[in-house]
Design a protein that fits this description.
mainly alpha
Length: 296
């Protein structure tokens, strides 16, 4: 519909152009004839009526063909222009698409790089935190170990100091007792001093005798295997220097108890002894009663 509307103006435009061109040609021919006649002023004037030649009427078919050719040419140019514009749009779209893909790719690469950097930073941070934690735990362990050592050393020193003070106190006490005893002894006359000294010496000897008697009894007990029957036996022991058993004598009692008692005494030789001759003099002979209560 739009093409039919465009044909009418084109035809009118072509017709107008043909008429204008014809008029221009006619005027040009007329002006030439007039100018030529004016050149010869002296020549006799021969008046002649000149009539304009009638222009041929435009050929409607030619005009139509021309219009169709023009229309076709314009249509081809329009199509070429449209195709060119479409190609340009396609190329521009392709260019934009590639640029957009490139931008997206660069964006993805940048995001991936940022992600990798973030992961690496997180990993590094985690490693640093673990390292700090280990260092802190090691520091705490060393401090705790140092504290325990210091505490143990402090207690050791306190214990050593306590023992030292106790030893000094005991030493002072003994020294004080000895000093008092010496003062008391110095205040006594010679006879009383001798009696007192003998009493002290006798006490020391008897104390040592009692201690050795207990040790001897304990040793014999360990080596005695009592009979299963009831009974008892008293045995006298003769002891020499160094605790050597010189003789055993049954003073009376059941045979089994006497025999097992003598065997236990022999097994226990040498018996516990003292280097003090006076102590050994007291222990030269001693009697032990073997009965069921002795083993208890």
């Amino acid at each position: 519909m739009s093409e039919k509307k465009n044909i009418v103006p084109i035809i009118l435009s072509v017709a107008v152009h043909v008429i204008v061109i014809g008029l221009l040609l006619f005027n040009f021919a007329w002006d030439d004839e007039v100018d030529v006649k004016h050149e010869y002023v002296d020549a006799p004037i021969n008046a002649k009526i000149v009539t304009a030649k009638e222009l041929p009427k435009p050929d409607a078919n030619a005009i139509k063909k021309q219009q169709e050719a023009e229309k076709k040419r314009l249509e081809e140019e329009r199509k070429k222009q449209l195709a060119k514009e479409q190609e340009q749009k396609r190329l521009e779209a392709e260019k934009q698409r590639k640029q957009q893909e490139k931008i997206e790719q660069e964006k993805q690469q940048k995001l991936e790089q940022e992600k990798q950097k973030q992961l690496a930073a997180e990993k590094q941070k985690k490693l640093e935190e673990e390292k700090k934690k280990e260092e802190l735990e090691e520091k705490q362990r060393l401090e705790e170990e140092k504290r325990k050592k210091a505490e143990a050393e402090r207690k050791r020193k306190e214990e050593a100091e306590r023992k030292r003070k106790e030893a000094e106190a005991e030493k002072k006490r003994k020294e004080e007792e000895l000093r008092k005893l010496e003062e008391e002894m110095a205040a006594m006359d010679d006879e009383f001093f001798e009696a007192q000294r003998d009493t002290v010496r006798r006490g020391q000897i008897m104390s040592e005798v009692e201690k050795l008697t207990a040790l001897i009894t304990a040793k014999i007990k360990r080596n005695w295997y009592p009979p299963k029957t009831s009974g008892a036996c008293s045995i006298k022991i003769s002891m020499g220097p160094g605790g050597v058993v010189l003789q055993t004598e049954a003073l009376g009692g059941d045979y089994d108890y006497c025999e097992t008692g003598k065997t236990a005494i022999t097994r226990s030789s040498p018996l516990p002894a003292s280097d003090d001759p006076e102590v050994m003099k007291e222990l030269r002979e001693m009697t032990i009663v073997f009965d069921p209560s002795f083993k208890d």
